[in-house]
């Protein structure tokens, strides 16, 4: 059973870059051993935590997209829990959600195409046609995460 | 504080409207026609942000999207204030819970 998972883990700020990459290779090794593959790895770098974990105020976030079985993810989760360097981890299954998103998206665009044809317009929107202007909500200044932390 | 203001805009204006209504009700009682003009209260109709902007994916990694829904005390903004539809509020809730777990969003403000 091949499923898609998303793994995010937060590495303690005391860890060196080498230790972070080392952790990544460990994860990779487990994935390969249990017959999965890593689709993508993203290092978000050092970020401020929204709240203190232990006594840490910062952490290095790493995101991995993994194809594999539930057993595989269980093993990775277990290993990360044991590791002292990892202060938080989250595994989320994403294939089903992505499907739903894809479906709603195609449904919407199809619906709009059908309606446009019914109105005698070309099926695709010309760039800039009927776009909503920027509303006030777009300039909400509460987006800055780091300021909100304290 | 700001986020509260932007979303509480509906709330505060409604309370202002309520005051206005009280005043007018008094007028109406004087003029004698009470029934028809009971409610000249304007409340901005709230629209689900996710429906309006066609955001399909409420992702826990997108803190920029989530932050306006956890004002001040970092509690999840209720539907009755934000106007989010039931479907999207459920998705939003899950996203916020996940983001909290990863310390992307606070559980509470000190």
Quickly give the structural class of chain A: alpha+beta
Oligomer: heterodimer
Specify the structural class of chain B: mainly alpha
User: Which sheet architecture does the biggest sheet of chain A show?
Assistant: 4 strands, antiparallel
Query: H/E element string of chain A?
Result: EHEEHEHH
CATH architecture descriptor name of the domain at 3-96 in chain A: 2-Layer Sandwich
How many extended strands of chain A? Answer: 4
Task: Output the keywords.
heterodimer, A: 150 residues, alpha+beta, Alpha-Beta Plaits, 4 helices, 4 strands, 39% helix, disordered C terminus, B: 110 residues, mainly alpha, 30s Ribosomal Protein S18, 2 domains
What does the secondary structure layout of this molecule look like, with pairings?
The complex is a heterodimer of chains A (150) and B (110).
Chain A: E1 3-11, H1 17-33, E2 37-53, E3 56-68, H2 70-82, E4 86-93, H3 95-118, H4 145-148
Antiparallel strand pairs in A: 1-3, 1-4, 2-3
Chain B: H1 2-31, H2 49-52, H3 63-66, H4 79-82, H5 86-101
């Amino acid at each position: 059973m091949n499923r898609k998972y998303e793994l995010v883990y937060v590495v303690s700020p005391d860890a060196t870059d080498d230790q972070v990459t080392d952790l990544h290779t460990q994860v990779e090794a487990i994935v390969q051993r249990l017959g999965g593959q890593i689709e993508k790895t993203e290092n978000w770098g050092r970020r401020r935590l929204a709240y203190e974990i232990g006594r840490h105020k910062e952490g290095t976030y790493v995101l991995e997209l993994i194809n594999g079985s539930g057993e595989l993810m269980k093993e990775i989760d277990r290993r990360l829990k044991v590791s002292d360097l990892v202060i938080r981890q989250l595994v989320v299954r994403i294939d089903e959600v992505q499907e739903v998103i894809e479906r709603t998206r195609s449904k919407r665009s199809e619906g709009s195409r059908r309606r446009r044809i019914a109105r005698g317009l070309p099926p695709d929107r010309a760039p800039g046609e009927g776009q909503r202007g920027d509303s006030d909500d777009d300039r909400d200044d509460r987006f800055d995460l780091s300021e909100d932390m304290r | 504080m700001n986020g509260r203001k932007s979303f509480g805009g509906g709330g505060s204006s409604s309370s202002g409207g309520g005051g206005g209504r009280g005043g007018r009700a008094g007028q109406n009682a004087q003029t004698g026609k009470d029934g028809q003009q009971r409610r000249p209260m304007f409340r901005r109709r709230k629209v689900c942000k996710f429906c309006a902007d066609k955001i399909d994916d409420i992702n826990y990694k997108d803190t920029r999207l989530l932050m306006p829904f956890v004002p001040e005390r970092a509690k999840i903004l209720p539907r009755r204030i934000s106007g989010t539809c039931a479907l999207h509020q459920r998705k939003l809730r899950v996203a916020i819970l996940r983001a909290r777990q990863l310390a992307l969003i606070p559980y509470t403000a000190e």
